Amino acid sequence: MISEYKVLARIGFLFVMMYMIGAGLAGGVNAWKETSAVVHETKDWGLGFGENGQKPTGNTSAQELKEQDAYYVGNTDEKVIYLTFDAGFENGNTPEILDALKKHRVSATFFVVGNYLDTSPELVKRMVTEGHTVGNHSWHHPDMTTRSEEEFEQELTLLEEKYREITGEELTKYYRPPQGKYSMATLKHAREMGYRTFFWSLAYVDWLEDDQPTKEEAFEKLLGRIHPGAIVLLHSTSSTNAQILDELLCKWEEMGYQIRPLSEIE
Q1: How far is CA 67 from CA 87, 126, 154, 168, in A?
Q2: Distance, CA of 161 to CA of 119 (rounded, Å)
Q3: Which residues are the active-site residues?
């Protein structure tokens, strides 16, 4: 039989723990719970749009992101655009994109994966020679929130090493989460590795090779939703982007926008 003393002791312990948790005084327990929730909470980057020309709202605030050196929008006080491309593979459209950027003297950031470095080293060298920045989109483009810390680091360092082998230079430590999937833990880990993370405040469905948007559909999104401080995400695999980029840059210029590098975001 359990002694009366033991029964009372157990009841007393349970009462104290319930009180501490309920009153918010179980600091160690609650701190662990909060940390655990942050570690395991995975999000898909998402935006809420209001009126055209206005900055959208991210599903994590700009302030929360900035604490981990992560950003989705730049200076909203000026008509500035930060142009970025995600480059998962090469299908013949990047040269035309680079031609348009060169014509307009625009510097962009290309977030590349391992496959791109393996198959298109000459285009990577051209990006660098023409003043563009190459960023890290991971080696295999996995959901990084499912990777261990060791695997997370390997995804980024493998790409760094290959880039160094191709260009003889160090990769700029800009990171874009593959598939837009992230957690505060992965953002923190990227920061600890010396990376700045960049999401986006304007993108459109341009990545389906067999279902490309029309020029009119592209302009509706890319002109209608442009806003001061926009970090624009385009895919270099898009034939529509390659065809319209020269005209798009002209139209943005006519609207009074300047395109600046991500390095100017603070």
Answers
A1: 27, 34, 24, 32
A2: 15
A3: 86, 235
Tokens of 188: 């923190």
Q: How far apart are CA 181 and CA 116, in angstroms?
A: 20
Alpha helices (runs of H) in the chain, residue ranges in sequence order: 4-23, 27-40, 62-66, 94-103, 114-119, 121-129, 149-167, 184-192, 215-224, 239-254
40 close to 183: Cβ distance less than 8 angstroms: yes
CA dihedral 158, 180, 65, 161 (to 10 degrees): 10
261, 257, 258, 231: which is closest to 47 by C-alpha?
231
Residues 217 and 226: their CA atoms lie apart, in Å, by 14
d(CA 120, CA 90): 7
pLDDT value, residue 2: 40
Q: For residue range 90-124, what is the model confidence (pLDDT) as tens digits?
A: 999 999 999 999 999 999 999 999 999 999 999 99
Q: Which residues contact 223 (CB under 8 A, 6 or more apart)?
A: 248, 251, 252, 255
Whole-Å CA distances, 45 to 82, 192, 199, 255: 18, 21, 8, 28
